[in-house]
What does this fold into?
Amino acid sequence: MKPRRLHIVFATTLLGVFLWLSVNLREQYQITIEAPLTIDGIPEGMAVRTPVPASLQLRFRGDGWRLATLLIGSVPHLHIPLSSLDPENPSISLNDVLDRIALARGVQLIDINPDTVSVVLDRKGEKTVAVIPDVTLSFRDGYGQVGPMIVSPESITVYGATTVLGQISAWHTAAVRFDDLKNPLEEDVLMAKSSDHLLDCSPVSVKIRVNIQPFAEKVFSGLPVEIRALPPNRDVILIPPKVEIVARGGIRQLAGVLPVDFQVSVDYTNILNDTTGYIDPTVTSPSGVQVVAQRPERLQYIVRKRL
It folds into this structure.
């Protein structure tokens, strides 16, 4: 196709799109915008004890052209003074939002979600709670985590209404994910924001540390099996009396692990409740070391009265 004809096709297409928009954007539409919410003028030493969302969903109706300006422009931030609310029933409703948002001609605010927000105050307090990391890790093939994740600090201080603080025992970090890990991890992670109460925390972030090493497997043979809760008038003979396990962990970690670091045991109560003649031993391994195989998996036993 000649260059001149390409220009004609492009111009025709552009004109068609413009005509389509000019016709369709004259129609009436509805859109929903999420607007951040802030309550101003809370007295010193007081805090809101009722659930207050961080934002309200505002539903508008109008012609397409005017609604498009709402989508393209900056999101409105709702600042609601506490003094503007009814002292007998302090709550935010559609009318409170209408009083504080500028609407273009032909645009209507028809609904908010939630439709009302109760704003009841209580004495402000603080509470120290444990940090729970909401952290997902995935590792490159052949690598893995050695030992527990370390969180620093292990606790934070939460500020808010005393009645709300009484219901809180821990605080999560923001959800984060780290992929393809092969080196030790040390990262700052933000604390999660309160979803339905006006609460603050300090510090606003914690440091997580994860020891990551190349993984290997090591065989530990001849581990004796202990019989727990054995009555003094009974003997139990296990066949075989010892087991072999395959352990997986960091290369440097496994280098320092000894057979005595594993405990293999059978509870006599489980033997009494068994009807098959075989029992599954329990293996306790050092922290960060995973037992991936055991040979044999089940042990035969003989119970006899001690002479």
The longest helix spans residues 3-24.
